Amino acid sequence: MAVEWDTPIESGAIPESGSHFDVIVVGGGPGGSAAASYAAMAGNKVLLLEKKKFPRDKVCGDAVGGKSLRIVTELGVRSLIEQTPHNRVTGITFSSPGGQNITCSLPIEEIENKEAGYALPRIQFDYMMFQKAVEHVLSSGGSVIQNFNVNEILVEGVENAQKITGIVGFVGNKKEGVELSFTAPLTIGAGGYNCPVARTVTKCYGEPMRDDKHYCGAYREYWVDVEGIETSQEPIEIHFIDGVLPGYWWVFPVGKNTEGKTVVNVGIGMVISEMNKRSVKLKGLQKSIIEDHPHFSKRFRNASMINGSGKGYQLPFGSPRKKPPSYQPRRSAMGGAMCVGDAAALVDPFSGEGIGNALVSSKIAIKYFDRLKHQEGLPSKLAEEYMKEIWNTLGPELSNSFKIQKMVRKKWLMNWVIGKANKKPELKGLLEQSLSSKEAQEELKSTWKLLKLLLF
């Protein structure tokens, strides 16, 4: 029986103002839901706060990569995904500014064994993650509040010895809602690119939170009847189009609707500093691709956009900063608090994928907290250890993606590389293996290996 995602999620009674918890999680997206679930599964009394009320949409490319599968399985969500409309990703099709295409396919055994990634609308994925988190949190004696707006992050202590101790906010809006405050020795920031916990962490240390060279603007629409996309096992498409570089245009099938038509997430992303320099409006740029591009306009001539599906968002990249004030990619923790996912600026700077890193960082964060040892607050020393582990774990991949992001700025280079991959089976094979093989990914990091494949 298919899982539904269009009914409200009952999250229980609202706790009394002044209540104390072991862990407060700000944000109910995938990262926040995972953090709340892991914290509750470890025996903590958790307060999970979400500013919207489920079901709710989230602007995204909707891809859930292989990195996420182990964690969604541990949390009991994977079986729910299998029962909801989704696309089983069979590979990735790339195109260069010159119009050359290459499709890198995942090994067939991974697709058959359901080890490949998914693409499904975030309104579905986030619903299932949050629903499972509510179950975990309530069963461990915690509380969940939807439609809650955090107004203030509570901080105690003096400079260089500060710690976050809780939050103040309102159910609904400030004018009509009643002010509520809650405390905990650990607050997890999972509130996205503008998370109030992340803002407080960086402000307490006088460090910048935002850098437009490392922020991406994104715009997404849902379409049906796109030519060439018919089944629920399709490759996702990433197109490096002249005028969109250094960003890319994507076409991601995400499953079938109630009429049996394949729904496609069509979107565009670009680094914000570049958008500002060129005065680019992503919605208009996408419209021109769909209507005027010599190849893509043909694929969309009989397609229809789903009304109201056009929405924009921002993504904080995890690309390394040249001269970081302290930690890479930016400070994301302090005494009493850790940030995860987008709130910690962990989005892949090449692919734009953030769910996998959000889930990984959430699992890592919770292992640093012990409710018995840390009743006076998560020590700042452990917050520093968390930031180091995050970068040691995700930094090599994020740094490599940043190098690729810089490479795709050069149109001639993208044309040459994709042209070579089409002619050299060994290079194409390595690219295909890299979609699932850690060993192949390591080989791609080797400058000599790539040069040898490209030049000889």
What is the structure about, briefly put?
With 456 residues, the chain is an alpha+beta fold. It is 35% helix and 22% strand.
Fill in the keyword field for this structure.
six-stranded mixed β-sheet; 456 residues; 15 helices; eight-stranded mixed β-sheet; alpha+beta; 20 strands
Mean pLDDT: 88
Largest sheet: 8 strands, mixed
Number-wise, the strands total 20
Number of helices: 15
Cα separation of the termini: 54 Å
Sheet-strand content, in percent, reads 15-25%
Tell me the Rg in angstroms: 22 Å
Approximately how much helix is present in the residues?
Answer: 25-40%
What structural category arises from helix and sheet content? alpha+beta
Globular, elongated, flat, extended or rod-shaped: what is the shape? globular
Ranges where pLDDT stays below 50 over 5 or more residues in a row are 435-441, 447-456
Walk me through this protein's architecture.
- This protein is α+β, with helices and mostly antiparallel strands and 456 residues long.
- The protein contains 15 helices and 20 strands.
- It has helices at 30-41, 66-74, 78-82, 108-112, 122-139, 196-204, 272-278, 282-292, 296-299, 355-367, 380-407, 411-423, 425-434, 438-444, 447-455, and strands spanning 23-26, 46-50, 63-64, 87-88, 91-95, 101-105, 118-119, 143-146, 148-156, 163-171, 179-183, 186-189, 215-224, 236-239, 248-256, 262-271, 304-305, 311-316, 333-334, 337-339.
- Strands 5, 6, 13, 14, 15, 16, 17 and 18 form an eight-stranded mixed beta sheet that branches. Strands 8-2-1-12-20-19 form a six-stranded mixed beta sheet, with helices on both faces.
- Strand 19 (333-334) and strand 20 form a beta hairpin.
- The termini are far apart.
